[in-house]
Design goal:
572 residues; mainly alpha; 25 helices; 0% strand; Sodium:Solute_Symporter; transmembrane; sodium transport
Length: 572
């Protein structure tokens, strides 16, 4: 077993980094230009004609979910909570991808040619619910973009003489250039190449670090050296579940339902391919992210101290410490591919939201100027990149960002899902339930009020109800309303005996569960006696294509066939 790292890590040098970045972003730019059109179609820029084939859609979904932040956060989970940390991170994240598809089938049925979930909420309820969903996605995508730039800056600063600031500028510029060209179409096409690079690199890098760092003996020697606690050794760590697993279950369920990057792929994939796409992405994500998280477990057992005290440095630090230069270059490509695949998705999502929800629906679908719409989308990408660069200089903890945004979206999950199934849900019920959930969530999550006395009991009661809501939503997608009620009620009753006096010690988990509980209770209470009998066929009439003057032949094929998406021309 080699000695603990002395702080010396392999660097690729400015020339090496420059060549790798030129190869990666030059290749993605070439792919984007190859599918570009002299007259870009506004709808294709957002959803690629709603007919992406299986290969590209599954790869794109996998690449989008496997972002650099998920790799870094899984490594952080492994380092913080031990062997069960990456499992609690990767397994629950993978299962949430699986939970999307039953709801996704319903969403596509009622809105087959929509561009954003907020657009559908506009058709279902009106402006206020649309603004809430669109606004939360703007915030979420900017934070996601920021965290990916942070990841890129960290890896470049760690593995080259370049600074963190130079690193985030390079990553931001590379992603913006190829995404700006063809929008969502560029994002999904480059995702295919990026996910192949990520998966291939992961298969080589993780075993290589394991054996070069000492192999199986590192675990026994790490225990003997006192580097790990009994909780960190256990696959069934209650500490890991309560602080990592349980909050993440709630967070990623919200990501799955509320995130526009996921919804955009849902609207783009061919409707009959929704299930195989999301099942395939489930397997790809889980295997890759759990595997990468083991780098954090190895760092824990080896007694590695994060450089600069920043856990975001752990992944590049382990790679640069134990791998030869060729594998360091491969790991660099893997990380850059993962962060780029999600950063371009965030840019495409933000442009779609502004194009559709802030411009398209405000002037009316029949009055849209497609050229102006495309210009607005491209300007949005530039502005979002500038904002994310500004926020990236703060270098937030990536895991904290992910859990916060997921919990924030938790306020919207039940009202959004209910709006696709329950005719009684009103705009008032949707709006007030989200506002009420935010009002209660924020003081719990940020400990603005001490969790003591009556307030603590109220929060714990709501959190107990939240457990039933989360499990009930999961059950509803696969098994229907009756099973959801039974499972949700049973879960709430089961948690009652030990929830009081216990959940108050876990603010992150309690905040997420409270968001679900309050939004459910308020939305249900304001809707159950409603006389509204909404006709879901209205949604098809309100949502749809903006660029209707484009000939039908131009809308065919990016995705009737994966070959078309790969730039090999139309298949007849």
């Amino acid at each position: 077993m080699p000695p603990a790292p002395s702080g010396e890590i392999i660097q690729l040098g400015i020339i090496g980094i420059a060549l790798l970045l030129l190869l990666f972003y030059g290749g993605t730019m070439w792919m984007s230009v190859a599918i570009s059109r002299k007259q870009e179609n506004a709808d294709d820029y957002m959803t690629a004609g709603n007919r992406i084939g299986f290969g590209v859609s599954a790869a794109s979904m996998t690449a989008t979910w496997i972002w650099a932040s998920s790799m870094y956060a899984s490594v952080t989970a492994g380092y913080t909570y031990g062997v069960s940390g990456p499992i609690h991170y990767g397994l629950w994240g993978a299962l949430m991808i699986l939970f999307i598809y039953p709801f996704g089938k319903r969403i596509r049925k009622v809105a087959p040619r929509a561009h954003t979930l907020a657009e559908v909420m506009y058709a279902r309820h009106g402006r206020s619910s649309q603004v809430m969903l669109a606004g939360s996605n703007v915030l979420g995508s900017v934070i996601s973009l920021t965290s990916n730039f942070i990841a890129g800056g960290a890896i470049i600063a760690m593995l080259s003489p370049l600074s963190f600031g130079a690193g985030i500028l390079i990553i931001a510029g590379g992603v913006l250039l190829y995404t700006l060209w063809s929008g969502f179409r560029a994002s999904v096409l480059t995702d295919f190449a990026q996910v192949m690079a990520m998966l291939g690199a992961a298969v080589v890098i993780i075993p290589a670090v394991f054996f070069l760092a000492g192999g199986p003996s590192m675990f026994a020697e790490g225990v003997a050296a006192g580097h790990v606690t009994p909780q960190q050794e256990s696959f069934f760590s209650s500490d890991a579940f309560m602080n990592q697993g349980a909050p993440y279950i709630a967070a990623v369920l919200a990501y799955a339902i509320g995130n526009q990057t996921i919804a955009q792929r849902l609207f783009a994939v061919r409707e009959d391919l929704i299930k195989p796409t999301f099942v395939t992405a489930t397997v790809g994500y889980g295997a890759t992210v759990i595997g990468v998280g083991m780098l954090g477990v190895m760092a824990l057992y080896l007694g590695v101290e994060p450089m600069g005290g920043d856990v975001n440095n752990l992944m590049p630090q382990m790679v640069g410490t134990y791998l030869p230069v060729a594998l360091v270059a491969l790991a660099f490509v893997m990380i850059v591919g993962s962060l780029s695949s999600t950063a371009d998705s965030d840019l495409a999502a933000l442009s779609s939201i502004v194009m559709t929800d802030f411009y398209g629906q405000s002037v009316g679908r029949k009055n849209v100027d497609p050229k102006l719409m495309l210009l607005i989308g491209r300007i949005t990408m530039i502005v979002a990149t500038g904002l994310a660069l500004y926020f990236a200089t703060a270098r937030f903890n990536i895991l904290d960002l992910l859990v916060f945004v997921g919990a924030l979206w938790g306020c919207l999950v039940f009202p959004v899902i209910a709006s696709f199934y329950w005719k009684k849900v009103t705009n008032r019920a949707f709006t007030l339930s989200v506002i009420a959930a935010l009002v209660v969530f924020l003081p719990v999550r940020f400990e603005l009020l001490p969790l003591e006395g009556v307030w603590a009991l109220v929060v714990e009661l709501l959190a107990i109800v939240g457990v039933g809501v989360v499990l009930g939503i999961m059950a509803f997608g696969f098994f229907g309303l009756r099973a959801a009620i039974v499972i949700g009620a049973t879960a709430t009753i089961a948690v009652l005996p030990f929830g009081f006096g216990y959940l108050r010690d876990f603010e992150t988990l309690s905040g997420s569960l409270v968001a679900y509980a309050v939004s459910f209770l308020v939305c249900w209470a304001l809707s159950v006696r409603s006389s509204q009998d909404f006709d879901f066929s209205v949604i098809k009439k309100v949502t749809g294509d903006f660029d209707e003057e484009t000939p039908a032949s131009d809308l065919e094929g990016l995705a009737d066939d994966d070959d078309r998406m790969a730039g090999r021309g139309p298949v007849r």
